[in-house]
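Allow me, if you will, to draw on your knowledge of protein folds for a short while. The matter concerns a single protein, recorded as an amino acid sequence and a row of C-alpha cells. Could you please explain, in whatever detail you think fit, how the C-alpha cells follow from the sequence? I remain grateful for any guidance, and I place the record below:

…
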Amino acid sequence: MRIGLAAALALWAGPALAQTAAAPAPSWPPPSPPVTAPGDGMMEKPCPEQKGLWFGHPYVKANDWAWECKYAEADKQIAARTRVVFIGDSITENWVGLAPALFAGGAVGRGIGGQTSPQILVRFYQDVVRLRPRVVHIMIGTNDLAGNTGPNSAEMYQNHVMAMVDIARANGIGVVLASILPAAKFPWKPALSPAKQVVALNAWLRDLARAKGAVYADYHGALVNAEGGMNPDIAPDGIHPNAKGYAMMEPITRAAIAEAEKTAAR
C-alpha cells in the first residue's frame, strides 16, 4: 500500500507532537536524585545535632567548612516566601537577638560568627535563594580582613561578593550591599590595623552597588569615630555593635530594604 509523503510525515510526527504537548513543565529546583548506597557515587549524610556546635568546633572545621548544616533544618521549615534574608557573620547573627522588631514580618537572619565571604558564597543558594526572598542584605568583610579562613586578597573578596550579587539578581532578588562596619583593631588579631582597608573595600562596595543596580547601606559613615573604629558605647569590643549600635543602624537598614524591594519589582 502506498501513502503520500505528506501523509507519511504526519503519521511519523503525530505521536511525537502529541507527546511533546502533553509533557509537564519541569519543576525548579529539580528534585534531588535518590541515593541509597555508597556504590551510587554519593552518600546521604544527615546533619548532626547542631546544639553545642560553633564555627570553630572541631567537627564543623573538619566536616562542614561553610557550616551549611547550621540553618539547613530551619530553612526547610520556612514555607512562605520571606521578605528579606540577612546573611553575614557574627555581626548579622547577633543582630537578630538585639533588634527583634527588625526581624519580624518576614525577615530572616542567616549570620554565622567567624565566617568569611567564601563560606557565605558556598551556602548562599541554600540560605538565601531557596527561601525566595524579595531582598537579600549582604554584610561581610570583617573576617576576610582578619584572615579568618587563611590566605586571601581583595580580588578574592570581590569575586565572592560579585558572585553573590549575580546569583541574587539572576533569581529576581533585590540586593542590599552593606558596608563593612568600622574597625580600628581586631581583638583576635591585635597586630592588624584594618581601618584604611575597610574604607577601600567600602568604596568598592558602593561602586559595585551602583553598577549592579543594588542598594548600598552606609553603616560605616554612621558609626565611625576619629580612629576609624567604633566607640565603646556602641561596640564594646570595637567590632560587634550592642543594642545602641544596632539602633543607629536600623533606619539605614529599613530605608535600604525598601529601596531594594522597588528594584526587585522592576
About this structure: Strands lie at 84-88, 107-111, 135-139, 174-178, 215-217.
